[in-house]
């Protein structure tokens, strides 16, 4: 169970993130993001464990010396609501980092503003 003070921290940071007032960076995991604060670092990760075929979300806090002080890892089958809380937070952070809404809005603007769209030789990153 995630303590109330951590839930409060997540809510405040989620609001900052939604308002584009939080500078997230990628971290070591494929879907892991981190934010560095004066007091330490916060990380959020989402991953699939092939061994038990379960999805997990992990939230960690590190002090300014780099020591892990809190780690909450919750599996998808958790019924306390903690998984949904952390997954929603992870999605907010991921969308902010990837600039998902800005990209979609620019695409809509482009499609609405042109008679013809698309390029045959578009240099896509994949």
Keyword list:
126 residues; alpha+beta; 5-stranded antiparallel beta sheet; 3 helices; globular
Number of domains: 1
Class by SSE composition? alpha+beta
Helix count from the secondary structure assignment: 3
Total number of β-strand segments?
5
Notes on the structure:
This protein has helices at residues 4-18, 82-98, 100-113; strands at 25-26, 33-37, 40-49, 54-63, 68-75. The protein has 126 residues and is of the alpha+beta class. It has one domain. It has a 5-stranded antiparallel beta sheet, with helices on one face. Helix 1 runs parallel beside helix 2 (82-98). It starts with a helix and ends in a 13-residue tail after the last helix. The model has no long low-confidence stretch (mean pLDDT 94).
What topology emerges from the helices and strands here?
Blueprint (H helix, E strand, L loop, with lengths): L3 H15 L6 E2 L6 E5 L2 E10 L4 E10 L4 E8 L6 H17 L1 H14 L13
Helix pairs in contact: 1-2
Short structural description:
With 126 residues, the chain is α+β, with helices and mostly antiparallel strands.
């Amino acid at each position: 169970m995630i303590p109330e003070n951590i839930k409060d921290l997540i809510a405040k940071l989620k609001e900052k993130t939604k308002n584009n007032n939080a500078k997230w960076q990628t971290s070591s995991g494929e879907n892991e993001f981190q934010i560095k604060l004066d007091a330490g670092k916060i990380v959020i990760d989402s991953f699939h464990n092939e061994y038990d075929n379960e999805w997990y979300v992990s939230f960690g806090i590190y002090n300014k010396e780099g020591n892990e002080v809190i780690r909450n890892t919750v599996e998808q089958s958790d019924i306390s609501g903690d998984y949904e809380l952390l997954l929603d937070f992870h999605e907010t952070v991921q969308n902010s980092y990837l600039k998902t809404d800005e990209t979609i809005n620019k695409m809509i603007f482009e499609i609405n503003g042109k008679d013809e769209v698309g390029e045959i030789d578009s240099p896509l990153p994949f």
